[in-house]
Amino acid sequence: MKMMSKNMSVNHDIPPLQINNDGLNESRQYTDEHPSTIDTSSNVHLDTYFSEEKVIIPSSDNDAFSFRKLWAFTGPGFLMSIAYLDPGNIESDLQQGVVARYRLLWVLMTATILGLIMQRLSARLGVVTGKHLAEMCYREYRKVPRILLWIMIEVAIIGSDMQEVIGTAIAIYLLSAKSIPLYIGVIITVLDTFTFLFLDKYGLRKLEFFFGLLITIMAVTFGYEFSVAKPEIVEMTEGMFIPWCKNCDHRALLQAVGIVGAVIMPHNLYLHSALVKSRDIDRKNNAKVREANFYFFIEACVALFVSFLINVCVVAVFAHGLYGKTNKDINVLCQNTTSTVIHQDLNTTFPYNDNQVDADLYKGGIFLGCAFGVAAMYIWSIGIFAAGQSSTMTGTYAGQFAMEGFLNLQWARWQRVLVTRMIAIVPTFFVAFYSNIDDLTGMNDTLNAVMALQLPFATIPCVAFTSNQAIMGEFVNGIANKIISIVLSILVITINLYFVTNTVISLNFNGFWITTIILFAIAYVLFNIYLVIHMAVGMGNVRLASHPLVRKFVIPPQSEFDSPSSYARLNSAYDMQRTYYTTA
């Protein structure tokens, strides 16, 4: 399979593409010095994320590391890291501790590192091109595939939003001493979301500071639980750095797979690529672009390290307190407390039997109240509330970016929040109203499986665009980066599909649903193959690009866009130089 040379010289007589997008003329230039990177000199006024209030990067006379510059770039990475701390991740953490104690901490660390690698690609795309991932999908895919991609990402965003609603409702339920029913807490999440939306009226840096405050609240609350639990540090360290799970059963294997699905979230790649646009970067100056990539990567490393420590605290607390325990053990423990809040429904929460205890956000709070006093339960609830609220806001931004990018459509933020939150609330409300708290918290596992299915629709485009020289120019992924990114994407996607398959099997569907799932699986695989072919074309596979079916169904015709497509443009380059490549 012959590939285009990285330093290919394209005929300069080809006129640059001229388009009109909301009154904006742009051109895509192809040069030897910086081949066909997107011209971002023009101003695109979007209301989503402070497009008119960009953070100015301080200048310096040398290339030495500058903490002032790092501070100027600090913000997007921490907002991105909130997805690693949402209620779904917190529940995955405590279940990990209950099922395998400290023995899966290395999986959590590995998943976080994998997430960092993918987030780096996402941020580089936004920095180099000035366009976020959804905008690039609009430019580079045909209409039907990009609509399907948008639907898949919306499903992921709504699934994440449902987890945030569940987490916030449980936090409100516990903080109110169980006086506010779960279904009322679900409704309250609509109101508090709009309240938080007003915060961005006070400016970008203040909003980023507020998100930092929420992360600090999570660090303090979950750190407090860690300090009172006093878990075994030596065993934690072994679990973190020894990649093995001795005497682990099938539950632990599924939990390990679930960790990857909970940590690496598809919509977060779309979010991060857009957040980096909030910095004032001179994209005509390659040195400035390189500098931005460097500082954004450092910030992402710090942010994900903080999120990893918070997740480890949660795992350790419940690994120390609940691993190997039965419902009877916890029931007896709770009998020693005088709190009426904890005694209420105790025999339902932890039945007096010898079954191995299972855990969720609600049971985790009750256990902490029994083991360390009712204050620990309220502190836990505050942390869960902060996790739900912070991830709600970042999910709102991700949804706005997806809608504007994929559909070239702008909605007012309150409209976007209302639609997304209502879709998330309706099923959650009915489960909370007609069922019990176990069913509500159990939805998190199903939602993790749903979001795991959407992961290829973020990772494949992200790798494809950052490996496309027509898009990234000299910042294109090198061979090593391409191999690592592709292998990691395949690994993560395979792990998630295994997790989803086991989840579906455990649900014991009848024949009709099994047939439906099989048909969906076939369509799912075919769409992924389509995206992989599209990626191969973008990486320079001449034979694929010249195939009639690929030209007809994969490479987008320029007439379909208001924006230039590198694939359509490269197609003309292939036509002109096909003789060279087929005889080389």
UniProtKB/TrEMBL annotation:
Compartment list: Membrane
Record's keyword terms, sorted: Membrane, Transmembrane, Transmembrane helix, Transport
Key word Transport present: yes
Membrane association type: Multi-pass membrane protein
Main location: membrane
Superkingdom in the source lineage: Eukaryota
GO terms for MF: cadmium ion transmembrane transporter activity; iron ion transmembrane transporter activity; manganese ion transmembrane transporter activity
Residue ranges of the TM segments: 105-127, 207-226, 252-271, 292-319, 366-387, 418-437, 449-467, 479-500, 512-533
GO terms for cellular component: endosome membrane; plasma membrane
InterPro entries: NRAMP_fam
Family: Belongs to the NRAMP family.
Record's protein name: CSON013689 protein
Upper taxonomic lineage: Eukaryota, Metazoa, Ecdysozoa, Arthropoda, Hexapoda
